[in-house]
Design goal:
With 157 residues, this protein is mainly beta. The protein has helices spanning 86-89, 112-119; strands at residues 4-10, 30-31, 34-35, 52-60, 72-81, 107-110, 130-137, 144-156. Strands 1-5-4-7-8-6 form a 6-stranded mixed barrel. The longest helix is centred in the last third of the chain and has 8 residues, at 112-119. The two termini are 19 Å apart.
């Protein structure tokens, strides 16, 4: 499926970012694996919104089977996936590198239509996160830059 898809970049990824958010991790904001009712989330700047990346499907995370290996899409950063958000840090049953909580991994939350374009399958019902390759793209021309970022992980919004 052609086009550009939306993505949120982890606030602590080493090579991509949705921007630093202004909050602290406070487990008092958690109610089980979710935030307490009425939680609003941290304040995140929009300085990195608009950046574009080519995302290549390198297979299911942890070796999980998934279709479309080698497929690619262009994603545009439209939001941040903040580590400091209770929507992320309360999920203690999910490893940090699967919820925008690992500073050693580039992480993107992509929209479900991008997942469908990458895998040929809709996300849900046990579908795996993806191992991905990422390269920066110019928002206006989508011309490939010299630096290609390391293989990383992708998650669904």
């Amino acid at each position: 499926m052609p086009g550009t898809y939306g993505a949120a970049a982890s606030s602590i990824s080493p090579d991509i970012s949705g921007g630093a958010c202004y909050a602290q991790i406070d487990f008092g904001l958690c109610s089980g694996q979710s935030p307490v009712p009425g939680y609003e989330g941290p304040a995140c700047p929009t300085s990195n919104c608009g950046l574009c990346y080519q995302v290549v499907n390198n297979g299911g995370y942890g070796g999980s089977p998934v279709g479309g290996i080698g497929s690619s899409v262009i994603v545009q950063i439209i939001d941040s996936c903040p580590t400091e958000s209770a929507w992320n840090f309360c999920k203690t049953d999910i490893p940090a590198n699967e919820r925008c909580g690992d500073s050693g991994t580039n992480q993107l939350d992509i929209d479900q239509s991008a997942y469908l374009a990458l895998t040929g399958t809709g996300f849900g019902g046990g579908m795996p996160n993806l191992e991905i390759g990422i390269s920066h793209r110019s928002a206006s021309s989508m011309v490939r830059l010299q630096a290609v970022l390391q293989q990383e992980e992708i998650y669904i919004l």
